[in-house]
Amino acid sequence: MENLFKKIQELQDEACRLKEEEKERQKGYSASSPQPSSTWNFTTDRQQHSSRTLPPWDGEWLRAFRKDAGPWNGEKLVVLSLFDGIGGIWAALTRLGIPFTGYSSEVSIPALEVLKAKYPEVHHVGDVRKVERMTVTEKVDLVVGGFPCQDLSCMGKREGLHGQRSKLFFDLLHVLKIFNPSWFLVENVASMTWMDRDEISKYLKLQPIELDSIELAPSKRRRLYWTNIPHPARLPRVKNHPSTFVQSCLLDGIALEEKTGIILSNNSYKSNSCQMELVLENGTSELRYLSHVELERIMGYPSNHTSLCIDEAENNSNPMISNVSRYVQTSNTYHKKRGKICGVGGPTRFCTPPASTLGEPLKDSVRWALLGNTFTVPVIAYLVSPLLKSSVRVLAQPVTISDPVKESECSVMDPDDVWALYNEHERPNWYALILRRSGDRFSRCGRADKKNPLRIEMQYLEITQPYLEGEEDSWNMLRGTGLFELRQQIDCQISWVTFSHRVTSVVKVQDKFFIYPGQDEVWAVCSRKAWSNFFVYVVESSIDISRLQSGRPGNEGFTACCHLLIKTTEHETYRKTNTTLEFTDISLFCFRAPYVFKQQANMLRLEVGAKGRKVRNIESGIRRSKRKRKDTPEALRDDVNEEGEGYIANVFQGTDRVEQKGRAATTDIYDVGYGPQINASIDEESTQQHLADPETIIISDDDD
């Protein structure tokens, strides 16, 4: 016990030391902040918010970014923030010292009250579904939006991007299409399925950057950000700096952990999951929960950002606003019932608004929800910081959205798309032309668990004979580029697991398809001598379309300039180097690897292989690998035994006839355990032979 009290005293001394260091940093910031241009009266704007207490990490890295960019010398940015919440983008721009004219789209009553109180200069445009071109008469420079995540998060029902709430993404697309801003920043959870992520990337035409706020702030919050603002060249190395610890954000008390968990719209106090870390009260041995003010500081907002009172009588007189009483509490003490649910156990003084305010304060649960649904301010400041440089702003080009943006007309997979599938060695260089798709995310019924099973009808692409030269296995080739032709049979897939990505670098040559490495793609390059491969990032590539009709390898006029990728110590994370490689031989390119940027411009996380592609509610079915050799019972058993035992049972559950151009083609569905889920077509005679031999039955015992 004596050692415990000694440890507590040491922690208290450390807390006092950190507070003193923070005071010194705040003084240093005030003295060394760069003076903005006379085109914007920054001093006046700071005076409007002089009552705000800045959180601690306005510190070294942000100051260094501003110093590197120099003083602001341009016009104000016109910014339109969709799903604005409590104004994360305005807090980030203010911290960066970027002048702005703000327009906000938000419908939540408590969030609107916070915005009006803290950022009175921002204009309000209402519901995002009603925003039209004349809603904002100025030329919009930047559109920001963190659209609802409830249908995408792993904590939700996973109804997907077309779910009831997350489909507001398509209204965001509509705004981008009608305003053609110079830049955009779109945010959502990193736990979404790869299909939803790829569909978002399909319409925004770029790959997201993945960033956990724990790198820049005291809380965990892993998110994906789609933005055409150039990614910062380096991530500030402040993850283990005391200024990004929970302790630096406490008003009093001692943090028992350096970082805290994910702040949700409600974190259960007694739950086994998503519980926030506790704090030791100063001078006592009692533990308490984080307070609202401390949460505000953790998320990067000034103290008491969500502490305000709503005049219930005034708001209820507005026909557009009703039932305000559900957002406010009738006394200055926190609601005990909600305190148990939301974990609000801090001292009462933390959630009591100033005595001079009129009306009733926001409920603690409402304040918590506002903070759980907002941005982490330092992360947004980091991603927007390149706009500090005039050299970046002068290169701005209007964003063009040419695809349909109506939700009912949008889909991750469309007929006539070419998709890559994993082969038997989990290399995504099998290709197929999509004919029809139904069920699963293509169903228009409401609940995800009531949707019809997935069914995708397609035709495989087979590489033409001249491009097969040098390949030892014609069905599991090393190369993933060249001229391909359609198979005659129609095949069927009933699961997403085997699909890798939509092929974008493809040229149709009469009735054939030429696939090649495209710009901003990551490809594996094969070294046949070493029987291995390495990865490159394609900076630019070109082919001569007029020479493709000859069908001769080496006559494509192909050139590619690439940067070499080297693997880091982090799992599946690669660093883009300055080593430049020039290619003219397209046969060296093995397969394309889907990726997301990781934290900064030169770091990428690759998705190599089908691992992690399984998602909930996938219908496990009977399927078989595509192969040309004879499927003997012994061969099929060998395939199964490679993945584990217990898969052998019956061969066919029946056949499914698909009409193709007036004649019937028989398709069957097999399974080879964990391997690729590819279905092959066979003739009637072969079907009868397999049906007569019950020893060759193969079924799936997946628990997807």
From TrEMBL:
<dbReference type="Pfam" id="PF00145">
    <property type="entry name" value="DNA_methylase"/>
</dbReference>
<protein>
    <recommendedName>
        <fullName>DNA (cytosine-5-)-methyltransferase</fullName>
        <ecNumber>2.1.1.37</ecNumber>
    </recommendedName>
</protein>
<dbReference type="InterPro" id="IPR018117">
    <property type="entry name" value="C5_DNA_meth_AS"/>
</dbReference>
<feature type="active site">
    <location>
        <position position="149"/>
    </location>
</feature>
<feature type="compositionally biased region" description="Polar residues">
    <location>
        <begin position="29"/>
        <end position="53"/>
    </location>
</feature>
<dbReference type="Pfam" id="PF11926">
    <property type="entry name" value="DUF3444"/>
</dbReference>
<feature type="domain" description="DUF3444">
    <location>
        <begin position="406"/>
        <end position="527"/>
    </location>
</feature>
<dbReference type="InterPro" id="IPR029063">
    <property type="entry name" value="SAM-dependent_MTases_sf"/>
</dbReference>
<dbReference type="InterPro" id="IPR024593">
    <property type="entry name" value="DUF3444"/>
</dbReference>
<dbReference type="InterPro" id="IPR050390">
    <property type="entry name" value="C5-Methyltransferase"/>
</dbReference>
<comment type="similarity">
    <text>Belongs to the class I-like SAM-binding methyltransferase superfamily. C5-methyltransferase family.</text>
</comment>
<feature type="region of interest" description="Disordered">
    <location>
        <begin position="680"/>
        <end position="704"/>
    </location>
</feature>
<feature type="compositionally biased region" description="Basic and acidic residues">
    <location>
        <begin position="17"/>
        <end position="27"/>
    </location>
</feature>
<keyword id="KW-0489">Methyltransferase</keyword>
<keyword id="KW-0808">Transferase</keyword>
<keyword id="KW-0949">S-adenosyl-L-methionine</keyword>
<dbReference type="InterPro" id="IPR001525">
    <property type="entry name" value="C5_MeTfrase"/>
</dbReference>
<feature type="region of interest" description="Disordered">
    <location>
        <begin position="17"/>
        <end position="55"/>
    </location>
</feature>
